[in-house]
Design goal:
325 residues, 5-stranded mixed beta sheet, 5 strands
Amino acid sequence: MRRLVPAAAAAALTALLLAGCSMGSGVESSSHEPPMPADGGTAEEFDQSGATGDGAQSGADDAATQSVITTGRMSITVDDPIATAEDAADLARDAGGRIESRTEQPGTDASAPSAQLVLRVPADELDGVVDGLRELGEVNGIAMEEQDVTAQRKDLDARIEALSASVDRLEQLLAQATTITDLIAIESELTTRQAEFDSLTQQRDWLVDQVDYSTLSVELITVETAPETAPDDFWSGLAAGWAALTVFASALAVALGVLLPWIAVLLVIAAIIVLVVVLATRGRRRAVQAQPTEAKPAEPQPTPTESRPMPPMPPAPSSDEEPRA
């Protein structure tokens, strides 16, 4: 008997879910039934005219609800980037926007001053803000990009609407639950749907903010750091070459100035090493010359033996002579 209780609870939960879905689908189907004509015309004529009107109306709605994210970048040459950054921020605030980030670098001996801002401006006021920024100085460059996210926004809206209806049905089932098993199952599913609903809502809110407020990055620099234009004739090319030669000579002089102390130290170390080697070599030579030379004893020469004359040999007897008796 106890084993049948969970099965019965699951069956009851399934029936309740199916009943809620059928009720929702029945309401939707009944709400979309086409009305009959009131002037006595035929249904086909009314359907054709209604379809044409709905199509035109839907096209107008799509054009009105198009979602586009606009981002831009600007580089402007000004006399005082720090003071001009405050003017640019005022332009964004006056248009109903805000300052998302702002960075300022005061000028030093090694670098020129500059400023960078990221402005969030209402999409309808973007052109006016750009025109106002043009008047702050000389524009070096401007770039605008647009991204159509209409399909993504409609998908999020549809999913959020479906999840909202699902959460409402689960809350109704939770109120009608009579057993602990049903309560646990419905609460678990309700928690999952609610978390997904909150996540999609945050994504849609971020997307809507990107569409409603365009992002504009502004860079403010001085004449020293502004990009130079390419030479277009002989004299401008000659001037550019002379300027490049001057910059190279200055950089070479700086490099020599940095290396000169090191070269001097290395020369001193090399001179000390050479002096030590020379002194050591001279000392060895003097030590060798100071040693006394020892006289070597004369080697005895062998005395020549007296040569004695050898007695003459008697002649050998010839074969013709007869031996004497």
